Every structure is written in C-alpha cells, then in structure tokens.
Amino acid sequence: MLQNLGRLKVFYHVFSKGSVLSASKILHVSQSAVSQSLQKLEEEIQSQLFTRMHKRLVPTAAGERLFAVVHPFMQELAGCLKNIKQSREKPFGELRIGAPVEFGKAYFPGMVARFREQYPEVTFYLKLGNPATLLPLVETGQIDFAFVDLFLTQNQFFANLDIYHFSPVVDEEIILACSKRYYEKQIKSDHSFSHLKSQQFIAYRHNAQDVKNWFKHHFNKGNVKYDVVLVVDSQQALISAVKHHAGVGIVASHLVAKEMKEGLIVPIHTPKPKIINQISLVLLQDKVPTLTEKIFQKFLIEKIQSMNLFS
Amino acid sequence: MLQNLGRLKVFYHVFSKGSVLSASKILHVSQSAVSQSLQKLEEEIQSQLFTRMHKRLVPTAAGERLFAVVHPFMQELAGCLKNIKQSREKPFGELRIGAPVEFGKAYFPGMVARFREQYPEVTFYLKLGNPATLLPLVETGQIDFAFVDLFLTQNQFFANLDIYHFSPVVDEEIILACSKRYYEKQIKSDHSFSHLKSQQFIAYRHNAQDVKNWFKHHFNKGNVKYDVVLVVDSQQALISAVKHHAGVGIVASHLVAKEMKEGLIVPIHTPKPKIINQISLVLLQDKVPTLTEKIFQKFLIEKIQSMNLFS
DNA sequence: TTGTAACATAAGCCTGCCTTAATCTATAGT
DNA sequence: ACTATAGATTAAGGCAGGCTTATGTTACAA
Prior knowledge:
Chains A, B: Pfam families: HTH_1, LysR_substrate. Chains A, B: Residues 1-60 form the HTH lysR-type domain. 2 copies of one chain form a homodimer. Chain A is α/β, with parallel strands linked by helices. The first copy, chain A, folds into 3 domains: 6-86, Orthogonal Bundle (Arc Repressor Mutant, subunit A), CATH 1.10.10; 93-171 and 277-307, Periplasmic binding protein-like II (D-Maltodextrin-Binding Protein, domain 2, 3-Layer(aba) Sandwich); 173-276, 3-Layer(aba) Sandwich (D-Maltodextrin-Binding Protein, domain 2), CATH 3.40.190. Helix content of chain A is 46%, strand content 23%. Chain A has 12 helices and 11 strands. In chain A, strands 3, 4, 5, 6, 7, 8, 9, 10 and 11 form a 9-stranded mixed β-sheet that branches. In chain A, α1 (6-17) crosses α2 (20-27), α1 (6-17) packs across α3 (31-45) and α2 crosses α3. The longest helix of chain A has 26 residues, at 61-86. Chain A is rod-shaped, with a radius of gyration of 31 Å. The termini of chain A are far apart. Chain B binds a DNA duplex through α3.
C-alpha cells in the first residue's frame, strides 16, 4: 500500500496537464512543491512515471497504468463528495428504512411516492420485519432508522435498548375480534377467560405469541396452550379469515374500523383498559440525523397522524 | 475536491475494521492520530461519517457512500502498484510498439508469439506506420518505442530529431528490380539514367518518393516525373506485380532473395554503392527503459540479426 | 464498585512539506 | 550568435500540521 495518498493527487494533476507548472497552479502551491512530490512518489514506487522532456513530462507505461486507476477514482470521489455535500442542503440519496410488515405494506408505498413527488432525488431501501430483525440493522448502520411496534413482540428480550432512541409515532388499539356470526354462535357474550381461551384462534405465529400477550394483559394469565386453527403472515389475511368466521384473532382496530361499523366484525372487550400498540420511530441514540432523514421522518409522522387511525 | 487525500486512507481502514484502535495498528500510528485524522476529514466534508457508539464506530449513510468509492479504489491501487513493482523484476504488462508496415507484418507476429512463450505476462499493442506517424506517438508517450526505416521517407523533414535516440537494428539493401522477362524485353542491360527513367514503375505512393530517392542516390537526379503504372501499399504486392512483369520497383533485397537466386527477379545495379536502408530502434532520448522494454528489445534485435537478412 | 477497553481531547514536539532563490537547458526572438 | 524566456530541478530553511504522550470520558464486565 502507498504510504502517502496525497501525492497521488499531485500525480493526477501533473498527468492531466502534462506539466508541473500548470498542476502547481491548480493545486495552489509552488511548482517546486509539485516537482518534489512527484519525485517522492516515483521514489516510493521505484518507477519513473514520466520521462522528463524539455518543458514537458511524457508519461511512461507505469504512469499510464497508474493514471488509469487514479483518474476514474478522482471523478467518482468528486461526485461522491458533491452528493454528500448537497445532501446537507436538500434531501438527497438513499434512505434505508425498516418497518413492521403490515405498517410497511399498508403505508409505505404511498408515502414514498408522495415524498418523491416533492423530493425526487431521494431513493428508498425498505426492509420489512419485526423489531428482532430491524434493531440489529439499526445498530450496525445497515438501515438509517426503523419503525417498530412493540406489542406483538413486547415480551421478547432485547439487550441494550438504551443505545436506541425511541419516539412514539402513533398508537394503535389492539383488539381481539371475530365475525358477528362467529360471535353469536361461539362467544354468546361470555367474555370470561375460561370461555375465551377455548375458542379457535387465528394467529401470526404457531406459538400464538400475540394471543398470549392479549390474555396476559386482560386476564394476567400466561403459559396457556391455545387452539390455533390458522397461522397467517399478515393482518390482511387474518382479517379475511375472521370475516369468514374461522375464529378469533388479534388485530389493529383501525384496520377493521369499517367492518366494525357495518357490524360484520365484533371486538371482544373486557373490563381492563384497551391494549395500545405503540409504534415508535427508533434510531441510534448518538446518531445525528441527516437532513434527508429529518425531513422524511417529519413528513411521514405528519402524514400518518393526519390519517388519524382512530377515526 | 478533497484537499488531503491521505485522510481517506485512514477512513478506509477505520471503516474496514470498524474501530479506531485496530486501524491505528494497521497504519502504525497512535490511536489518537487516527481519531484526529478522522475528525479532520469529517470536518472537511462537513458530514458525520460514523456515529460514535461505545467502543465502536457505526458508519452513517455518508460513510457508506464514501466507502463505496474508496474501497474499490484501494483494491485497484494495490493491484496496480503490485503490477508496477513486479514489472521491475520480470517482464510484465503491455508493450506499445511501433513498426514499419512491412517490417511489422513480416516479423512481428512470430516474434511476439515466441516472446510470449517465454514471458506470458507481457501483452502487446502494435502500431504500424511510417516514421511520420510513429515518431509523434513516441514523443507523446503513446507508444513505448518504435522501429523505423529511414529510406523511403528519408527526405521528409522532421523537427527535433534530437529528442530521440536511434540505434540501428538491421540494414536492408534497397534495390530497383524487375522480372527477368521484363529485363530482357525493356532494360536490355542499358542501365543509363535516360533509359531507366522512362520505364514503367511500381511505387508505394503516387508521387513515387521511393523511386525518386533511388534515382537521387544513383544518378543524383531529382525532380523527375516518373511513369507510375501501379501504386501498391505493401512490398508483397509490389513483388507480386514485379513477378507479373508489370514494371520496375523498389524493394528490400532480402524479400526477393529466393526469386533472384532462381533468376525470376533481376536487380538493376549501377556503379554507385548499394542503398542501405537502416532500420533503427527509436526511443525518447531521456526515457529510462523498463525491464520489459529492455528484454524485448534485446530479444527482437537478436532474433532479427540471427535471421541474417543478407543470407 | 472497581477495573478495563476503547475513543476523545490537550499540549507540545518534530517531521516533512512548502516557499524562496538559484541553477539548468532548450527554444524563441533579435 | 547572443539574449531572453519559460519550464523544470535543486538547495536551504521556516513553519504548519500530524504525531505522540498523557489525560479525560464512558460503558461494560467482573
């Protein structure tokens, strides 16, 4: 490896201009400085880079070879620095964002599209997943920030949560729901634990973690085996199953607001307060957000809150 | 443009190792020096490149972007320097060579093949042309050296011939020749100027510069208009034309040695000494030849001379 | 609580880069 | 032929900037 990269810059300009003097003007140093730098470089790689002709430097094969490497780099570097610089003045570049699957699927494409209307130079990388997958990505800088919901996975253990900064974005009401027909046939207004625990459940995992969480909250009962009749990978699928009377399931209330109004889907309440699933923006505690990040976060939060999920 | 490229090297290692300390070990400087360099760099581009976490640096988007440019460059640079270095120890890389058309066509392919058997890491770029095109390429470093013959174009004017170094490689005997049948029918042993100048000529240019040079040498007569019946672009074509009794033409004697021995082609002599076309190796006066160049030049000259063009 | 590991900061030294000035040399101009 | 000029190299010395040592800070482990 070369010990002094700075001399490559001198070489680059000398090669480009074919002259020490004009290079020295570009570099704002004396021609002597350029001459000396160049000699040091040649000494270092122990090869002539130019043959000295009167008032002119003619590149040797080694010089040509080196320039072929340095030239494109200088171009790219200049472009890269320009990008970094201009992303301080106006949003620019790729934003790498994590989000829960439902949240991401439901809101992100539209948000991104609308944001890009305003800031067309911003591109996106969207990683969907649960906190267990997203937080490590935030920690290692593989994504810039993430949205996470804490309910469905709230009982999982995360070490070092204090390296993150959480800011609540929106609250979802989490309910246990079933179709009206299922309710009338199976629930019959009996909201006791012993009755409810024997229902047929639609869950997101085979272990029914979401269901367990719901019962833990409402009855303070854990470690119960529930009858999971269907495992789904999305709330939309769950809602569809519920509509078809397949059983009861956990869902964000705003996603079934219409169905509840029409009486197709019925929430199952208990005396305990509602479960609120807090969706938070999470970023590294010490990270100074870039302009692009700040603007997009502001944009996204405003849009989401203006949608008023409880309406 | 970045003012201090050296700091990129520090950045590169810090990014690679994700740690100031381990970068400092690689760079053989103190941990503090690395820390300071990095801060200077961030200051210079006015963007954070890493978010500082406890005992760890996590790259930001800007850092990732910069690394994406610097990383491939460092790889290529290392490779390039390795190449340059090893081309000091054994022949390596591309040789860019100029040669006269005939000379190049006749000898080069075989030479290159045989050389590459011995030094397979050497590749070639061969530019065929006359001195008027080759010398400027040597001067501007676009080819490393060239072989030129001076006879056919000897009367052309070249400025600054003293920036080149010429070393004779081989002497060709240049003759005026025709077929035996043409000789017996048209020349009839009359080698006088007045008789010869009225023959039918095969030449390499419309202006018959080669023919003019021959008459200038043998009779000291210039500025005569000759009857050029055929213009060819190669000695092989000229030889073919001569064999078919089309007229007389200038050719290197060794190219028609066999035909002369068999009596098919006849040279036209005069009392003046033979014309010797000296083929020289030409390189820039001040250029220190690389190992690859020296070895190939030696190889080529030995091969050519061992062929003994006058045999 | 203490110890430790890793990064940041402070202060001063010293290397190495840059400047100025002189020298060299090929070309242009008279 | 003589001089002037322009561009490169060489030499010497000043000084900025990078490096080192020492200290501060902080989170994690024991």
